[in-house]
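Whiteboard transcription, Tuesday session. T.W. wrote the structure tokens on the left side:
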């Protein structure tokens, strides 16, 4: 019975990784679009004008916030990948211990009979 539960946990973790990667890619795409648009608008807005400076400040602030979000998402992705690796290793170790215990139990039974 433990195998379906473990498979479900693995599938859920993988689904979480995929969702976070999709979100990361979407934010990165938006960030790139804003960077491109900012470059185009920088020509139209003079950096010496008040509205030009405010516009640049807004874009700089947004870029910093977007980067923080991207970094946090990447951290979550990395942690879930580590969880997935650890899960696989733990599952393998448990299977080995069960096989070893089963062999020891069979050996003890055979010695008694």
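and on the right, the sequence the group agreed on:
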């Amino acid at each position: 019975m433990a195998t379906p539960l473990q498979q479900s946990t693995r599938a859920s973790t993988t689904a979480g990784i995929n969702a976070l990667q999709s979100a990361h890619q979407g934010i990165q795409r938006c960030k790139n679009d804003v960077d491109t648009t900012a470059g185009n608008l920088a020509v139209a807005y003079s950096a010496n004008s008040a509205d030009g400076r405010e516009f640049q400040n807004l874009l700089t602030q947004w870029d910093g916030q977007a980067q923080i979000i991207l970094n946090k998402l990447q951290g979550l992705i990395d942690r879930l990948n580590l969880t997935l690796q650890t899960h696989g290793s733990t599952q393998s170790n448990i299977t080995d211990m069960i096989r070893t215990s089963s062999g020891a139990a069979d050996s003890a039974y055979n010695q008694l009979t």
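Someone added at the bottom: The radius of gyration is 27 Å.
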